Amino acid sequence: MSTPTSMPLLSAISLGQLYGLLQPITVPNTSPNAKFTNWSRTFTCSPLAVFEPETEYHCELILELARREGRVVRAVGVGHSPSDLACTTGYMLRTTKLDRLLEIHADKRYIIAQAGITLDALHAELANHGLAMINVGSISDQTLGGIVTTATHGTGINYGVISTHVMGLSLLLADGSRVFCSRQERPDLFTASICGLGSTGLILTVTLEVEPAFRLKEVQQTIQFHECVQTLDSLVIASEHVRFWWFPAADTMRVSSADRTVEPAKPVGSWLWHSLIGFHVVQFLLFVARYILPLNIFIGRFAAWLVSTNVIAIDDSFRIFNMECRYPQHTTEWAIPYENTKACLHDLHDWLMREFSDPKGLRPHFPIEVRFSDSDDIWLSPSNGQRTCWIGIVQFKPYGFEVPYKLLFERFEAILCRHGGRPHWAKAHHLRPETLRRLYPRFDDFTRVLESVDPRGMFRNEYVERHIFGKTGPGYHNRVFKRHAPSQ
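Structure (tokenized):
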């Protein structure tokens, strides 16, 4: 969508007129929405102003104001990232009203959608036209722009991160120009933007490769941890989309294997896990375990039992790909070279068994999710140059109450780092430019593009300044936007 010809040139608009044009899309300071808190309720911020644009022209006005006032602009979707990636003390631009599917090219297997559309809405729109996304992560609450700019992934050793299915982007740059980029047109900007942390420009539209709608047949079974690791290579390639859910307290792995099928739909779930027992009883037990730490081991075994039966389900692809996040949570996830998977899982297992045997040891929640992706050439993708195993750990916050997690995550991350770990960009981590430069061979190419398209740093919030440019000080600390006092 281009700027309407009837609209005045931005440079001709006075500052007073600019404020007037932005007033209808500015969230009042008295509104609860004038503050931002992410989905997991772990980070919060109070932006200088929050805008909810409904058109691309609105976006142009916001950037014009930011240029004149020297402000940072941070785009945010639904705020699902469990880090401060979306937080800012500058201007916040909510993309959730820029949520339309603009073009459908079923014969050529691609669509063009606004970046603010959620995956849930996109699934429904695609299904109406007999189409589907090629691969999807564990949830679909996020916006399309959000998953692209963080290289969010699904699972499948022969499937890349979701950004590998992006064919083109239209961006609004810091200087106000609207550009299109792809692998053929402005390829450096494109490769930087499809895992760009929102720092290359404002993503307006995404051209996305899709495929005809399909069903998946998923088989879930529980096996012992050591059996899973011993047969890992054969398990991972046995189906198109394979993932594991590890319950350390029970020493078991829940194996999910899914393949495309033409069989009729047969939705099936674990009644115990999804029922009153599975949701409310487990949450209550987790709450009690905040005070009686040894109870966490029992809860882990109980949860593993709830999902221990063999299950075969056939359903629309996105329904099989997705799972329920259940409760607000602290989480961290790291990507390691696939060839390090067995050794890393063994090291994690040895560590957790030591914690369990220590009466004062740490008590992790469950499950630990293990997924896989193919290699890619995206500069900041954790799968850049390597087939990848993703390992993620959670600590649930029952009823929103805090739980110990910090030391647990530090020890977990130390093991992942020893095995070449790269952090998921949407999740909180401690790495700085000096370390990231060693992990990502094209890191300096990425920063070169940022300096070129945004020399004044309009799109660099505290997260980007901290992790990409190495800024330090109280305003750039990891916990500057932390919602609660530090946990143990």
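The first strand starts at residue 36 and ends at 37. The mean pLDDT is 95.
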